[in-house]
Amino acid sequence: MLFKFFKRSKSNDNGLQHNILFAPNYLVKTKAHKNRTEYTMGGHSIINIEHEDGKNIGLYFDVTRTQNANKLSITDDESLHLGFQNIANTNYLTLGTRKNLAQSKAGDKLTLKFKDGNSITLPLESCSGIAKEKKGYACNLRTKISDDVLLLFTTKLVESYLFEFQNSEKPVNKSFEADSRRKFREAAQSFLFVLQKHY
Hints:
Helix 1 packs across helix 2 (178-198). The chain has two helices and 13 strands, in the order βββββββββββαββα. The protein is an alpha+beta fold. The chain has helices spanning 147-155, 178-198, and strands at 27-32, 36-41, 45-52, 55-64, 72-73, 80-87, 90-97, 109-114, 119-123, 125-126, 141-144, 158-164, 172-175. Helix content is 15%, strand content 38%. The protein starts with 26 loop residues before the first strand and ends with a helix.
């Protein structure tokens, strides 16, 4: 009977061992590689910590249940993907931008509105040069986030986004998919757990 609940999904499950049944801050297993350790979390996240000479040098998403990538798809038109990474002890929200957001560049602003009506505005910057060698860090753009903002992502649901472009007077505003709001919060919870407990 329980087999029905553990039946493998056909959509990008990618070895996640049916972890959707566990909380996003529950560590299911770890796997050591040559220069990194892989943390398989409950929910839909696998997170990697990179090592060099015995020291942790970076943290990033390797794969998610919903997408074979290092970011979550947030909208129904696949125009925005969001993820998290830590480089040199700095936390970043990473962006994959497509379609009408492909025009975005460093210097633009991203405003995220929460379900409770509050919002935060974040300045966008270029992706780290390390991404050219290591695809786990790949993104179109990124923005630094404080510990307080990261904690906010773990407790509140993001309802929508607003992009303000330097080269255009017309901003782009769109709502998160209902399911993506929860998945984004869970991804933040998994990221924060590994960051605090293992990094």
